[in-house]
Specification:
Elements: H1 3-16, E1 20-25, E2 28-33, E3 45-48, E4 64-68, E5 73-76, E6 92-93, E7 98-104, E8 107-112, E9 117-122, E10 129-130, E11 135-141
Antiparallel strand pairs: 1-2, 3-4, 4-11, 5-7, 5-10, 6-9, 7-8, 9-11
Length: 142
């Protein structure tokens, strides 16, 4: 594999937003890795909740923001099995702070807080599969 091919794969990684790529050609294996995108470039979805009067059971109260999963994947509350979770109910969070990781296709995607506030609910369990748009957290804005 030559330099031009490696650069082509690196360009493909950037275009697709990948943090890792492994290519096998004949008896050669090339693994490319890069750091995740800066916080401003990461995709995090924050959806305002419905008004309290029309809130069905399990929905977010009016003074909270729901952080939804931007992809299908596996929810991880901590950076490693034996590590403390990123956040717990009652924790104060700042905009851009990592809340969890959603693993999709062997890539770890950090999900960030979109607002300053307090975690009032963690909607999924560690290791649970989440769908696109599934509520992950509810944050009371401050």
């Amino acid at each position: 594999m030559n330099d031009a091919e490696i650069r082509r794969y690196a360009g493909l990684m950037a275009e697709l937003g990948l943090t890792g790529l492994e290519v096998t050609e004949k008896d050669q294996v090339i693994r490319l890795e890069r750091s995740p995108a800066p916080a401003a470039a990461r995709e995090t979805v924050a959806v305002p909740a419905a008004p309290a009067a029309a809130t069905p059971q399990g929905a977010a109260p009016a003074d909270t923001v729901e952080v939804a999963s931007p992809m299908v994947g596996v929810f991880y509350a901590a950076p490693a099995e034996d590590a403390e979770p990123f956040v717990k109910v009652g924790d104060k969070v700042k905009r851009g702070q990592t809340l969890c990781i959603v693993e999709a296709m062997k890539l770890m995607n950090e999900i960030m807080a979109e607002v300053d506030g307090e975690i009032v609910e963690i909607c999924v369990a560690n290791g649970q599969v989440v769908d696109y748009g599934s509520p992950l957290f509810r944050i009371r804005e401050r």
